[in-house]
Specification:
With 337 residues, the protein is an alpha+beta fold. The protein has two domains: 176 residues, Ribosomal Protein S5, domain 2, CATH 3.30.230.10; 143 residues, Alpha-Beta Plaits. The strands form three sheets. Strands 1, 4, 5, 6, 7, 8, 9 and 14 form an eight-stranded mixed sheet that branches. It has a four-stranded antiparallel sheet with strand order 11-12-10-13. Strand 11 and strand 12 form a beta hairpin. It is globular. The structure holds ligand DP6. Ligand DP6 binds next to helix 6. Belongs to the diphosphomevalonate decarboxylase family. GO terms for molecular function: ATP binding; diphosphomevalonate decarboxylase activity. This is diphosphomevalonate decarboxylase. Keywords: ATP-binding, Lipid biosynthesis, Lipid metabolism, Lyase, Nucleotide-binding.
Length: 337
């Protein structure tokens, strides 16, 4: 029996991906730039089952059924559509584990689909280079295309004129990085409260109804270019400013959707104040937020403990939960004996 295991890490976008131009091919409206973290890891093993056996999917020890299973089965079908018939007829056993602090609300579809892409491609004998793996992971979840690589990564929007060319050219790649750009990220974990709208649906609604969406698309391409240049030049201040601005613009664009999409909680804004206070004290720290209330704060690696400690102190004297992360590696796969 062929079994392949893969490990992928979460990534946090510094220039955000928010909106698709093609939902079937998972082509983004814009390029995006991210940092892969050493924390929040997914390990997935795919084992080929005998011909005709149904796919079995297990996540963190629980057998998946219904929609979450279907999402994985569809992805496996995409892999099977690219392999010879004798392999395409075989089901798969998928066992996945997330190393995320429990209750942190940080389980990531990026690490999940990057690991699944690596393990499924390996088990079905689909011979893909890193670029091919990134394109495959993209089909599971857009941000997963970026978790194929470690450190700073750019996911290219790809050819905008033709979907076939777009599919071929929309992949992530590691960014040339100044050797002295030594960054880290403090992740402030806030109470997620009642679950807001899922990011895929929220994204589609933003594209369809936010009058700010065209401006978002136009500006994000500029931000991606500027962030790429700042990473190459090792300019953390410029990178941090672009990252915080991109997050603010993404949330502004979704707040302008109808009905409005709001992920930020009052506590998120308090953390933004704390980040601004750090900067006023001369500490380089810049915030970014995704489809939830948590705030991730980019800073120099040497400032990480200090930033983490400052953000742990809430105005009411309570302590916030802060996880400290550093740049992490790209996708790794291993064929099991
Ligand atoms: C806010 O990659 O989870 O984290 O492609 O629909 O699976 P799908 O969406 P997903 O969206 C991530 C959105 C974001 C910003 C980002 O990571 O760039």
């Amino acid at each position: 029996m062929t079994a392949v295991s893969a490990v992928a890490h979460a990534n946090i976008a510094l220039v955000k991906y928010w909106g698709k131009r093609d939902g079937a091919l998972m082509l983004p409206a814009t390029s995006s730039v991210s940092l892969t973290l050493d924390a929040f890891r997914t390990t997935t093993t795919v084992t080929l089952l005998p011909e005709g056996a149904p796919d079995e999917v297990e996540l963190d020890g629980v057998r998946l059924e219904g929609a979450p299973r279907t999402k994985v089965v569809r992805f496996l079908d995409l892999v099977r559509s690219q392999v010879p018939p004798e392999l395409a007829g075989r089901g798969a056993g998928v066992v996945s584990r997330n190393d995320v602090p429990t209750g942190a609300g940080l389980a990531s579809s990026a690490s999940a689909f990057a690991a699944l892409a690596g393990a499924a491609a390996g088990a079905y004998g689909l011979d893909l280079d890193r670029r091919g793996l990134s394109r495959l992971a993209r089909r599971g979840s857009g941000s997963a295309s970026r978790s194929v690589f470690g450190g700073f990564v750019r996911w290219n929007a790809g050819d905008l004129d033709d979907p076939v060319r777009g599919d071929e050219t929309s992949y992530a790649e590691p960014l040339p990085t100044a050797p002295d750009l030594d960054v880290a990220m403090a992740v402030v974990v806030l109470d997620a409260g009642p679950k807001a709208i899922g990011s895929r649906e929220a994204m589609a609604s933003t594209v369809a109804t936010s009058p700010y969406f065209p401006a978002w698309v136009e500006h994000t391409e500029l931000d991606a270019a500027a962030a790429t240049a700042a990473i190459a030049a090792g300019d953390l201040t410029v990178l941090g400013e672009i990252a915080e601005a991109s997050a603010m613009r993404m949330h502004a664009t979704m707040l302008a959707a109808y009905p409005a999409v709001r992920y930020l909680a009052p506590a998120s804004l308090e953390v933004l104040d704390a980040v601004a206070a750090l900067r006023a004290d001369g500490v380089g720290a810049w915030a970014t937020m995704d489809a939830g209330p948590n705030v991730k704060v980019l800073c120099a690696a040497r400032d990480l403990e200090l930033v983490g400690e400052a953000l742990a102190l809430a105005p009411d004297g309570a302590r916030r939960r802060v996880l400290l992360a550093r740049p992490g590696p790209g996708l790794r796969t291993e064929t099991l004996p």
